[in-house]
Specification:
Layout: E1 3-6, E2 10-13, H1 18-24, H2 36-48, E3 50-54, H3 60-70, E4 74-78, H4 103-115, E5 119-123, H5 132-136, E6 141-144, H6 152-163, E7 169-172, E8 175-176, E9 179-185, H7 192-196, H8 206-216, H9 226-235, H10 246-262, E10 279-283, E11 288-292
Parallel strand pairs: 3-4, 3-6, 4-5, 6-7
Antiparallel strand pairs: 1-2, 2-5, 7-9, 8-9, 9-10, 10-11
């Protein structure tokens, strides 16, 4: 039987049905190879992989559900926050009945309910220095979609990644204005502590927040003006998010992640993303995309 099991971690353990699985992902197979054997071999990679998503907000929550739809069967979800009214404009699971509920728990419930043949481990306390290594354990890939203002907890996640022999890389993909930035961390990339240049216990002063803005938003939008943005980021300590942009980030994240898992990075015509301190950018306002290699500040 499949059920919700209460342990030291919340876990959904799905009952796998091979016939149902291949029926539900069937429409993907035509793009995965020139033979049925090749197609199924690639899909098996998605089926067997374990993906961690740290942060189940506007991007992370939608990514979790999309990965299940694509055939991923093993997820680990972490988020300490609960839904509030301001989340309704962009976040999966955010509605009036879920206000006050933990985001990771709601997203896991929705994702599991799609097919009930998946395994989802939930960390409702989020990523902390105490939970980061346990969360990273068993993950092949991890998506860092934690809150903009997290420093110590994000550092803990990245340190656990660097200690992991299994996890291949991490993505951090924030939305800014009408743009999406893609940051990729590998064992060979610049550590995030060096990228940010901020101590674990730094207080969120105006100077520190400006530093975060500079590192997470390497190209500030020309509109609205700096005074307006600093009012949000520094005075209100809230990152403004246009509701149309998180779905764009979701698509970019799951596409690039899936291509690597499926082995499409070995095909001719594949463009690799730079690792930190480089980044990739797609902007819908100017309709421009670009890749920046090396140190950008």
């Amino acid at each position: 039987m499949s059920d919700f099991i209460e342990t030291t971690r919340h876990k959904y353990l799905g009952k796998y049905d091979d016939e149902l699985y291949w029926k539900r992902i069937n429409r993907s197979l035509g793009w995965l190879g020139d033979s049925e054997i090749e197609q199924k071999k690639r899909q098996e990679r998605l089926k067997d992989v374990t993906i961690g998503i740290a942060g189940c907000g506007g991007i992370g929550g939608a990514v979790a559900v999309r990965l299940i739809r694509m055939g991923v069967r093993n997820l680990k979800l972490a988020d300490p926050d609960s839904f509030d009214i301001s989340n309704i404009h962009r976040q999966l699971g955010a509605d009036l009945k879920n206000v006050g509920r933990n985001k990771a728990e709601v997203v896991a419930e929705l994702a599991y309910g799609l097919t009930k043949d998946v395994n989802i481990e939930v960390y409702p306390e989020g990523i902390t220095p105490e939970s980061s290594e346990e969360f990273m354990q068993g993950c092949d890939y991890v998506m860092d979609q934690m809150d903009f203002y997290e420093i110590a907890n994000r550092y803990a996640l990245h340190r656990a990644f660097r200690q992991s022999e299994r996890c291949k890389f991490m993505f951090k993909i924030p939305t800014v204005s009408h743009s999406v930035f893609v940051f990729k961390y590998t064992k060979a990339s610049m550590p995030i502590e060096e990228v940010y240049g901020i101590s674990d216990d730094a207080e969120l002063s105006g100077e520190i927040i400006r530093r975060l803005m500079e590192r997470i938003i390497p190209e500030m939008p020309s509109y609205p003006n700096t005074k307006t943005l600093e009012h949000w980021f520094i005075e209100k300590k809230e990152m403004p998010i246009f509701a149309g942009c998180p779905p764009l980030a979701e698509g970019i994240l799951v596409e690039r992640l899936a291509l690597e898992i499926l082995g499409f990075n070995q095909l001719s015509g594949f463009t690799s993303l730079p690792i930190q301190p480089g980044y990739a950018l797609f902007d819908t306002l100017s309709w421009k995309s670009k890749i920046v290699h090396g140190k950008w500040w």
